[in-house]
Amino acid sequence: MADILQIEGGVLKGCSDKDVTSVAIPDGVRDIAWTAFRKCTHLQSLTIPKSVRHISKKAFIKCTSLSKIVLSDDFEKVPSEWFVSLNEANYEIVCTKDSSTYKSVRRSPHLRTHVKEIALQIAKEKKVSELKEAGMKALLGTLLENVGDSSFEIFQNKKGSDVALFKMGKNAGFFKLCSNHSRWLPKIQKVAESFADSSKSGAEILAVIEAQKLPLAEIPQWWRMKTVLKADSEGSLRVFASGTLFKCKYDGLKNLELFGVTEIGAGAFLGCTALSSVEIPSSVTEIGARAFLVCTALSWVEIPSSVTEIGERAFLGCTALSSVE
């Protein structure tokens, strides 16, 4: 095998047999150059030893038949860039389960789907998740069947955990989903009943949420950048969430009540010119810079004693502000 490979100073620079179907790179090679397998269109299998520390992003261009890559068990890190020039759908990575190589590949979103065992597990988990979600949506659809201005949506946060938005009228709740959806459904049903009860205050609804031990979730960035939170016909909106409330898109928002959040992020309501009143909960400890910048209709805001820091220009340009409590 070594006689067809051009190796100089630990760098694999080329392969003289363009019709070769299988190559085992010898131990000691540290670098695979972009010219290493140029025009090796028949190459199907490649074994890479633990000595390799770098592979050119162009190393496998036009290796159209390469479908199997065998990795040594001793890699601490396998960069996804090594195989960027390969057809994503057509190659398999082979490594020993529970080896350091396997663990490294498993951590990579781009590589783990190329290990057959991991890919099958991912596909199984996705199918189970889809079935659970379909069942939950069907049940909640029945629950909301005769309720106007209501919606339910499931999405993921940056950590890959499921978050549910449940909205009814002026009440919008963001909740963390537990893995056992059958346990979660009765809890959200109780919350739905409180959302539908127009006589209940936001504080009373929060008490129901806490009694059901239903954890609130932070609003994911990608979601708040593309989705609109709509106030009711009177311009009122209650938001039940956790963590930092960053800037969202709102429709018709005039009166806002917040519950559960711990911080109002920088620029959270910047330019919300129709916003006239805000009730901030005692869970909030910080109001970020420019949080209410140029909210020209804002005339009343309640700031609890729990707030210990207010950022620069948080209320600059709030020309109608007459009462701060």
TrEMBL record:
<dbReference type="Pfam" id="PF13306">
    <property type="entry name" value="LRR_5"/>
</dbReference>
<dbReference type="InterPro" id="IPR053139">
    <property type="entry name" value="Surface_bspA-like"/>
</dbReference>
<dbReference type="InterPro" id="IPR032675">
    <property type="entry name" value="LRR_dom_sf"/>
</dbReference>
<protein>
    <recommendedName>
        <fullName>Surface antigen BspA</fullName>
    </recommendedName>
</protein>
<dbReference type="InterPro" id="IPR026906">
    <property type="entry name" value="LRR_5"/>
</dbReference>
